[in-house]
Write a structure and sequence with these properties.
The complex is a heterotrimer of chains A (248), B (186) and C (204). Chain B is mainly α. Chain B is built from seven helices and two strands, in the order αββαααααα. Chain B has helices spanning 2-20, 35-46, 48-64, 84-103, 109-136, 141-148, 152-172, and strands at residues 24-25, 31-32. Classes of the chains: A alpha/beta (248), B mainly alpha (186), C mainly alpha (204).
């Protein structure tokens, strides 16, 4: 998709003793991991720490103790490397889109990578054309549907051509046709993907899967294997009544 | 720094959105908008520096021609009109309120934020507003004061709300009250 | 969000924004200094005729925006009737009308992108004094982007209140709105950081 597409589409993630505490609540507890993947699915129940792990891997949040490396880089401290290394799509596009029009939004990241204003705009128009959305350039974000906003976020990240794309449940709350269409656009991304979701049907193309439970790794391994174990356990827990349990 | 900018911009947006809320009328028919409540909260929540910047950003965007003031007003005209002094007063008010909340920590937050809102959001803001009105309408300060005094009860109510909302915010999310963080004076 | 720029295209739209602003500053200064009733009558007629030039739609839209001044005009005129100094009252009213009218006129005939260019130009010397122009531009974009988003949330909160209470929500939505805005701010700052933050790599 991109002219400078990364030849090596796989990525390596290394967590070493990773702990994270937010407002005195442990969210991630002592994660150790070292694996190479092309598409990594991260599953777990609500509150298992999936989203937080995504933010830590992307270098947006610093671990309380321990280290995180993606392709050998510490992305929290090396933000310059981070821009080429990783892009992240959040659950709610309204939290991601910074500018009032599509072109400004897509051009922003290119400017951040060091392009002049004019070059960034040209690059943004190229990206829009690649997604067959050249006509969207001047459109105000406030006029777009939720699915269209998601696509703008994807294009804005794709324009920066990171080696790895992190998806933090970007399909939650979308209707079935919109999900299917977005997945097709997502397939245009050539790099490695880390996909966070509690819905395993989103992850059927993942070669590797990581299952988080209460901030700990419950299981990690080949996609299908982890998926089956996860579904069994979720069905079992669904029969219980732990919704009654208050935290702490 | 990203966090500061995001808070400044989001609070400028909050001030704008409070202007869209339906006006309420005090018993004697004086319209009161929630917009200056947003200015008070910018001070109590963001602190002096960031609160002032939020108000300045809001006013800049209004001047650029976006209808962010209550009633869909905006553009350059409001900065030469009779109420322009109040807009200048908002800047000083946010600074004053933030300054007080950052430094006065010996009392309950609701009280501190409420008193700060009275000092900044009423005393300071009306001082600027009255001077502006006296200039534009060519009146003495006393005469201009007579013209705006009917709005003061509404602003006292807003200062009380600002105090309560600030304290509730602090209980709900202590980390969101940047005026009370260790690095408040970044 | 729709800016106050008039959709009716006028010849003034094509004048440089910097020129219009400079003329406005000079005109406002002149209006503030002059005192004669004849001068201010002429100035007000001139301002109103500028509104009339682009046609009826523009004229009525412009006057509607000036109508917020009428309570002030009424108070001032009534005041000066009482003090038997009607001429001074007329001068004050006409001066206010011309000054606000001309300023609104610049807003109505200047596109957002054009006035932003002036801000950028004015900001250049300030940038040398430490003003972060990139941050300012992102901030302006962010506000314009987030006002409709937060407005929508305020509407939802009001509806959710009304669905469960016979009383009007009014200021009670302020607290949840502030909480939502602060949460949004945290997420947005992450999104900003995810794409390189406020320091451009080529400049540090």
């Amino acid at each position: 998709m991109t002219p400078d597409r990364p030849k090596e589409a796989s990525a390596r993630i290394a967590l070493d003793g990773l702990c994270l505490t937010l407002e005195a609540r442990p969210v991630l507890r002592d994660l150790d991991l070292d694996l190479r993947f092309r598409r990594l699915g991260v599953v777990g129940r609500n509150g298992s720490g999936k989203s937080t792990l995504a933010r830590v891997i992307a270098g947006l949040v610093a671990p309380t103790t321990g280290t995180v490396r993606l392709n050998g880089h510490d992305l929290y401290n090396d933000r310059r490397a981070a821009l080429g290394e990783v892009g992240i799509l959040f659950q709610n596009p309204d939290h991601q889109i910074i500018f009032p029009t599509v072109l400004e939004e897509v051009a922003f990241g290119l400017g951040q990578l060091g392009s002049s204003k004019r070059k960034a705009e040209a690059g943004a128009r190229e990206t829009l054309a690649r997604f067959d959305k050249a006509g969207w350039a001047e459109a105000p974000i406030s006029a777009l549907s939720q699915g269209q906003k998601h696509l703008v976020c994807l294009m804005a990240v794709a324009a920066m051509a990171p080696r790895t794309l992190i998806l933090d449940e970007p399909f939650a709350g979308l209707d079935i046709p919109t999900r299917a269409q977005l997945r097709r656009y997502l397939a245009l991304f050539p790099g490695a993907v880390i996909h966070i979701s509690h819905a395993p049907e989103d992850l059927d193309d993942c070669d590797t899967m990581l299952w988080l439970d209460k901030g700990r790794i419950a299981m990690v391994g080949a996609g299908a294997e982890v998926n089956d174990a996860y579904l069994d356990e979720m069905a079992r827990q669904g029969a219980r009544d732990d919704i009654s349990d208050l935290p702490g | 720094m990203e966090r500061s900018l995001a808070h400044i911009a989001l609070f400028a947006a909050v001030i704008a959105v409070l202007g869209f809320l339906p006006k309420l009328s005090l018993g004697f028919g004086v319209p009161v908008t929630a917009q200056s409540l947003g200015v008070m909260l910018a001070g109590t929540v963001l602190g002096a520096r960031r609160g002032t910047l939020a108000v300045l950003l809001f006013l800049l965007i209004t001047a650029l021609g976006l209808p962010l003031l209550a009633g869909g007003r905006g553009g350059l005209g409001v900065f030469v009109g009779p109420t322009a002094g109040f807009l200048a007063g908002w800047v000083a008010a946010a600074f004053c309120i933030g300054f007080i909340v950052e430094r006065w920590r010996s009392q309950k937050l609701a009280l501190v934020a409420g008193v700060a809102s009275v000092i900044g959001g009423i005393v300071v803001m009306y001082a600027f507003g009255i001077i502006g009105m006296a200039l534009v309408l060519d009146k003495t300060l006393l005469e201009a004061t007579a013209l705006v005094v009917a709005f003061i009860p509404g602003d006292i109510a807003k200062a009380v709300i600002a105090g309560l909302v600030t304290a509730a915010l602090y209980r709900a999310r202590p980390s969101s009250l940047l005026s009370r963080q260790a690095n408040a004076v970044l | 969000m729709i800016s106050l720029t008039s959709p009716v295209k006028t010849r003034a739209h094509d004048l440089p924004a910097g020129l219009k602003l400079a003329l406005l500053v000079v005109a406002t200064g002149g209006l503030a200094r002059a005192d004669g009733l004849a001068f201010h009558t002429g100035a007000a007629l001139f301002s109103v005729s500028l509104y009339a030039l682009p046609g009826r739609v523009f004229f009525t839209a412009g006057l509607k925006r000036l109508s917020i001044l009428w309570p002030f005009a009424a108070v001032v005129l009534a005041w000066h009737l009482v003090t038997r100094d009607v001429e001074a009252g007329l001068v004050i009213t006409l001066r206010m009308l011309s000054a606000v009218g001309l300023a609104n006129l610049v807003t109505m005939t200047t596109r957002l992108s054009d006035i932003m260019a002036v801000v950028r130009w004015l900001g250049t010397p300030l940038a040398r004094l430490g003003l972060n122009m990139a941050a300012l531009e992102i901030g302006i974009g962010l506000v314009i982007r987030m006002v409709p988003v937060l407005g929508e949330k305020a509407r939802h909160l009001t509806e959710s209140w009304r669905a469960r209470s016979p009383r009007r929500a009014r200021w009670r939505v302020v607290l949840p709105l502030a909480v939502l805005a602060l949460e949004d701010a945290d997420r947005v700052s992450e999104a900003l950081r995810a794409r390189g933050g406020l320091t451009r790599p080529d400049k540090d």
